[in-house]
Amino acid sequence: MQRIYLAQEDIGGIWRYGAEPGDPVTGTKVVSTTEDNGEIGQDVKGITIYYGRGGGGYLLAASQGTNTFHAYTRDDNRPLGAFEIVDGNGVDAVTGMDGIDVTNFGVGGPFPQGFLVTQDTKDDVGNQNFKLVPWQAIAAAYPQPLLVDPTYDAYQTGAPPAPGSAPVPPPPATTSTPPAPAGPAPSPPPSAPAPAGPVTRLTAPGSTTVTRLRFPVSWTSSGSTLAIARTEVQRRVATWRGGFGAWSTWATSHGGGSTTVTNAGGAARTYCFRARSTDAVGGVGAWTAEQCRTTPVDDRTARAGQGWRRAKVTGTYLGTETVTARQGARLTLTGGHGTAYSLVATTCRSCGAVTVSLGARVVRRISLTSARTLERRVLPIASYGRVHTQAVRVTVVSSGKPVEVDGIAVGR
């Protein structure tokens, strides 16, 4: 499987190219950002490959805009869902990551079956740093556990055996679910073995913030021996100031294969989806892990201090922005209940910079400068392992440079 993958920032994604001398020079985009109805929140900040025998394994991508990591099958780049590295055991969550790598080799200690390493832009009590997570903890967190293959050596594939030695069959790949050691762990909890029945996968929306009120929800369903009779997709919704409502049936499809339905929602909400299928004799599969998308709170909901003005701007989220060039100008949103906060703003070559406070604490300084003008840019502020209720305050720290705020996302 001779391939090269390239990650493109801004409204980019992941491109795949053939690696053989005679392959075409044009690539294929296999992963898109949310601006192109994909699942990656700007930017793609690192890609890596987990290798498995027989072409197995995964393409992994860091989604900086959503503080999540996405897994795709190595053969056909099919999305398998996303995970977060949350706080726990005295270690803070990973946010704003800028680079990842993975190895399937066991290195001893808490990493007998390999590990994922990621840069972490901000530590709650110190400087930016790197976080390591055991691969077996990540693999076990998926409803259908990922491959764990610590003995496969991708760099020795095809190497001849030693003279006079008998061929040694490769050991089988295994999937294990040992207790996770101390340190950060993926947010989806390890699930029990799936009961007999059809298998359902949510392939969209992924877990991210989206600046469009309409977005696709996609799923696939298949049975090992029996035909699929129906697939039920449930949805639950939380407002930015409240908790989730109950799960309720949102869509139903009949037969197997792939289905896509558009979710037409409102602003300032988090929409979560899960699905399961029933086969022709009544066998019911397991629910998928939920996938959630958050639509931001509009800028007009925030209280604007002196120096700001409201503007109607075509192409922005809900058609408005709150703008200023005054240093020290403040914009405040109160009453939110969330686990993840992001700023939605326009970035440009001459744009300024802001700090963002949650409660009384400044948690991030954000530059709004970019090589070209980008509207509806989702810029992560902070994420937590539990719900936080606190005011969000945006303070302009630049002087004489435009700051154009489009919204604030309060995700669950």
UniProtKB/TrEMBL annotation:
Residues 1-142 form the BPP domain. It comes from the Bacteria. Coiled coil: none annotated. InterPro entries: B-propeller_Phytase. Residues 153-207 are annotated as: Disordered. PROSITE patterns: BP_PHYTASE (PS51662). Pfam families: Phytase. GO terms for molecular function: inositol hexakisphosphate 3-phosphatase activity. Residues 160-196 have a biased composition (Pro residues). This is Phytase. It comes from Nocardioides panacis. The lineage of its organism: Bacteria, Bacillati, Actinomycetota, Actinomycetes, Propionibacteriales.
